[in-house]
Amino acid sequence: MALKGTELKDKLPEGGKKNCRECGLPTCFAFAMKVAKGDADIDLCPHLLPEIKAEVREALEPPMAMVVLGTDDQALEIGQEEVMYRHEKSFFREPAIAILVSDKDSDAEIETKIQQVQGAVYERAQVILKPNLWALRFDSGDRDRFAKVVQKVHDSSPLSAVIISEDLQALFMARDIYGDRCPLLYPITAENLDAALPRIRECPTSVGVRAEGPENLIPLTEKLKGQGINQIILDPSSKSFLQAMQDQTIIRRCALTKGMRSLGFPTLALPYKYTKDRFEEILYAGAFVAKYAGVVVISSAAKDLLYPLLIERMDIYSDPRKLRRVEAKLYEFNEPGDDAPVLVTSNFALTYFSVSNEAQASHVPSYLAVLDTAGFGVEPAMACGKFDGQAIAQFFEKAGLNQKIRTKRLILPWIAHRIKHELADDLPDWEVIIGPKLINQLATFLVESASEWGLKVNG
Ligand code: SF4
């Protein structure tokens, strides 16, 4: 729980009534409010004892720590979330998706996964979606085999890894291979903590602690923090999916609303533990993305499973206070020439994504004029004057479409049919065509229209 300005004032000299102005502010209360908001440093008050300053500093720390996995351009920050529910503010740091590889998998299976992950880079609404980590699990009992698998994955992919091994020797051997990429070591437990600590300290990295139930994680995190190790991820070792949902919620609630710093860390989720069905596993993984995992390990990198999960993550971790938008500009599909029609739409990302998918899939050469509607869809943009005849005419003028296009066919979204008459005034040389009522009819509409216009379809 972050320290409030009113609580901080009570800790200031004379209970916040000294008001000597030496900090540059007119009152202790004004100073307290600024410090609580992070706009002033507590050191500016010269009258505070060092132990009070340290106490204030700790109280001002975010309730949940941030953990960094990976390095350089593969570095991923997780944790430091601020709210229980996305609608209260936003979820800020999306969970890492890790792809599981067991050293019991055959070489061919491992090679397939490496290739799937290498190809798993998708773009949606101008956002790049991809998995973030490997999860390399020691199952074979053969350390040489595990070393070979870890080295192979390390050398084939720039991603960092969650190293999963109950055998400490195998765990730290793999850590040494991934030492340059800040991996996550898992599991650190009450049973192996003392033996693991010297090895952890020799090359500090993130550690995943495991204990049965959130309450049993507390002594482990306290001990690690006491050793100066703060890059911690929690696994409450839940016995069932339902229990896992409860434990994830308890940990988040304890950290954010009860101020329990011992549980103020991101969590690990292993949905494959709860089912053998690959579709059910992805549904569970999706639930963990929403509530409240920092790392989600899944057993498959197949596109039909991974892609929906990545999209869900993108949506959950988008800021609900900001409309998702794309760049307002002229887009081209299927090598359009001067006889191609011009579709017009808003820069609301989902509208753009739907229209561009249909335009691309039709194989009909076309332009797409995406107006700057501040992220609003077409209908609200019309209501606030951002999508009307004048705005479209200005866009066409700026993009040089009046000169570029010979046939001058403009396709207006069906929902905007009532501004057709405005375009007769603002773009008198253009034939204004109303598009289909449903977006999923657009590709067919374009193909049929192209045939009518004698326009060559590419592909
Ligand atoms: Fe209060 Fe300290 Fe500022 Fe003086 S310097 S007004 S005591 S906060």
Brief characterization of the structure:
With 459 residues, the chain is an alpha/beta fold.
What does the model show?
This protein is 41% helix and 16% strand. Strand 14 (342-345), helix 13 and strand 15 (366-370) form a beta-alpha-beta unit. The protein starts with a helix and ends in a 6-residue tail after the last helix. It contains 18 helices and 17 strands. Helix 1 (5-11) packs across helix 3 (28-37) and helix 11 (278-290) runs parallel beside helix 12 (303-316). The protein has 459 residues and is α/β, with parallel strands linked by helices. The strands form 4 sheets. Strands 10-9-8-7-6-3-12-11 form an 8-stranded parallel β-sheet. The mean pLDDT is 94. The structure holds iron/sulfur cluster (SF4).
Q: What distinguishing features does this structure have?
A:
459 residues; 16% strand; alpha/beta; binds iron/sulfur cluster; 8-stranded parallel beta sheet
Write the layout of secondary structure elements.
Elements: H1 5-11, H2 13-16, H3 28-37, H4 50-60, E1 66-69, E2 76-79, E3 96-102, H5 107-119, E4 122-124, E5 127-129, E6 133-137, H6 143-156, E7 160-164, H7 168-177, E8 184-188, H8 193-202, E9 206-210, H9 214-226, E10 232-235, H10 241-257, E11 268-269, H11 278-290, E12 295-298, H12 303-316, E13 330-333, E14 342-345, H13 349-362, E15 366-370, H14 378-383, H15 389-399, H16 401-404, E16 409-412, H17 420-426, E17 431-434, H18 442-453
Helix pairs in contact: 1-3, 6-7, 11-12, 13-18, 15-17
Bound molecules: iron/sulfur cluster.
